[in-house]
Amino acid sequence: MNTHKLTKIAINDPAWVRYSLIALSLATIGLFLLLPLATIFIEAFAKGWQRYATELADPNALAAIRLTLLVAFICVPLTTVFGIASAWAIARFEFRGKSLLTTLIDLPFSVSPVTAGLIFVLLFGAQGWFGEWLQDHNIKIIFATTGIVLATLFITCPFVARELIPLMQEMGSEEEEAALSLGASSWTMFWRVTLPNIKWGLLYGVVLCNARAMGEFGAVSVVSGHIQGLTNTLPLHVENTYNEYNAVGAFAAASLLTVLAVVTLVLKSFLEWKQQRT
After folding, report:
1. 171-191 burial, b for 16+ CB within 10 Å, e for fewer?
2. Residues with Cβ < 8 Å from 69, sequence gap 6 or more?
3. Is the dihedral of CA 256, 259, 264, 265 positive or negative?
4. pTM
5. What does the alpha-carbon distance between residue 181 and residue 183 come to, in Å, rounded to a whole number?
6. Is the Cα torsion angle 112, 251, 207, 59 positive or negative in sign?
7. 56 alpha carbon, distance to own chain's centre
8. Per-residue pLDDT tens for 99-136?
């Protein structure tokens, strides 16, 4: 059955069916999406703007915000470089192990973040495979910023690659081959031909990667040690603050993550629209 027939059948459905489905969809969105988001801001400002600002100005909250931004600042560029390189290799070359590389890129999607964190503890913890060597050389990874960065890199590494691989495969290599035949260097070809064709898909992957890097909880929770002011990212600060029965502080920090989610959604929709137009 083609799309035209499906559309015609849908139009001919009784009005009560259409309105019931629309009402059910709106009710589900309101109950499970909009209401929780609104509750976060209601609770965050329950005791006024001054208390809200005081909670966000708390040294532990500021340290969590700084660490979250630092982790994203490190992980997003590295993930972007990895995504471009792996997408280029998979879309442009044939080599042994290509299917294995494609599968490994998807591995973080199938592994629980908590399990990923435990893997890093097993490798780099005090009792881990490399723990003794790291202690002898005074290198600390677990319960330190380095471990948080490594765990976040593992979780976020597929996002850019997964956006670019199908895009570059669909794009083909004819324009790039033409640029090379006209004397352009590989670097010039990338900046003048490849990048303009993939820029919206690249930005889409970067936006999703940044949102996941800032909002990651499971893997970071395992490797961080929950040290306030040192290894607590913003999601961990929300948990710790709530466990200390400081609901306003927890919801104030959560409101920042909610704003990040909304901004990510808006950018995602905009980039999808731009991709459809190009």
Report:
1. beeeebeebeeeebeeeebbe
2. 214
3. positive
4. 0.84
5. 5
6. negative
7. 23
8. 898 999 999 999 999 999 999 999 998 888 998 899 98
